[in-house]
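Input (structure):
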């Protein structure tokens, strides 16, 4: 019997000072962005630094696509930036190949000189190099609560072959923009916390059978604090005034549980302008509940028992639908 997913309300942070410390470190780190050090007014400097990070994430992300599309010798620079978009100039040696306008939240591309279709194609053929997803014996925190079907978790645990259905281009762009934002966030985390920052760590916890990558761990007064970064397009960012997506907090808590880290902070970044929101997470009863559920699913798989399926709308995107419901694909 698989214990049901339980809904436990967010646990209040016992340490609001810690949340403020993370916020002020990150904002100070932003202000120390080399390109903006000459600006004396602190508010202006923060605004400009945010812009720099958003533009740079777009530049580096799109540049890697351009290199896939037109060759590794393509270089680029930010040509002009406006609030919601940035124009990138792509060059090969001293020859300007053309300019591409990139909408920072969604990676919509426009160009009069280059075929942006080539960039879209490069994006569509980019595959995750995370091979562990198809290795059995583990659960992934980012998948475990997002998809409520226990059978899906069992397929992952048993190492069943995954087949990723192609995702719609706008969604692929949003993910790619998110990945570029996360890379830029790694740089910020190191600048903000110096030697007390440990960005982008791979962690696994054998007893609970969870593995995954965390965005960062920082030390505040020698106390470890998990940092979970999430990026959003501007529209969504401004909609969520009342708090983070509950799934993010659960994911953060799972990482905290894996590391025995009492406190965490979910940092939500607006991909357009790098304004940020901060939400505390506290290790609590949800971690124990998830461990019990994971253990029960693992035991059923190991004993050869059938794990219950909970079909839903999400089945369309399930990488195991080929094994689970082959008839639905006919
Ligand atoms: S296809 Fe649906 S029912 Fe089957 S494992 Fe995936 S999510 Fe569960």
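Output (sequence):
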């Amino acid at each position: 019997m698989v214990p049901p997913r339980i809904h436990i309300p967010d646990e209040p942070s016992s340490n609001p000072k810690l949340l403020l410390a993370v916020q002020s470190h990150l904002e100070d780190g932003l202000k120390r962005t080399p390109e903006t050090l000459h600006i004396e007014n602190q508010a202006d400097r923060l605004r400009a630094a945010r812009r720099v990070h958003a533009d740079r994430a777009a530049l580096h992300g799109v540049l890697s696509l351009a290199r896939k599309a037109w060759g590794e010798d393509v270089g680029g620079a930010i040509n002009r930036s406006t609030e919601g978009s940035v124009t990138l100039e792509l060059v090969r040696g001293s020859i300007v190949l053309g300019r591409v306008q990139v909408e920072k939240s969604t990676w919509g591309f426009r160009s009069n000189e280059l075929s942006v279709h080539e960039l879209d194609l490069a994006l569509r053929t980019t595959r995750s190099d995370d091979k562990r997803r198809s290795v059995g014996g583990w659960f992934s925190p980012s998948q475990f609560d997002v998809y409520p079907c226990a059978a899906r978790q069992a397929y992952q645990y048993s190492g069943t072959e995954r087949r990723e259905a192609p995702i719609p281009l706008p969604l692929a762009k949003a993910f790619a923009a998110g990945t570029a934002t996360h890379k830029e966030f790694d740089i910020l985390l190191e600048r903000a916390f110096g030697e007390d920052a440990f960005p982008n760590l791979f962690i696994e916890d054998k007893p609970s059978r969870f593995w995954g990558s965390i965005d960062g761990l920082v030390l505040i007064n020698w106390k470890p604090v998990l940092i979970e970064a999430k990026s959003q397009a501007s529209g969504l960012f401004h909609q969520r005034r009342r708090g983070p997506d509950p799934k993010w907090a659960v994911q953060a808590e799972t990482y905290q549980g894996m590391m025995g880290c009492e406190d965490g902070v979910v940092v939500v970044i607006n991909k357009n302008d790098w304004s940020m929101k901060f939400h505390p997470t506290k290790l609590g009863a949800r971690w124990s509940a998830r461990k019990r559920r994971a253990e029960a699913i693992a035991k059923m798989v190991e004993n050869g028992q059938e794990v219950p399926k909970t079909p839903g709308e999400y089945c369309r995107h399930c990488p195991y639908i080929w094994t689970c419901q082959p008839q639905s694909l006919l």
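Notes: The longest strand covers residues 210-220. The domain at 129-329 is CATH 3.90.320.10 (Lambda Exonuclease; Chain A).
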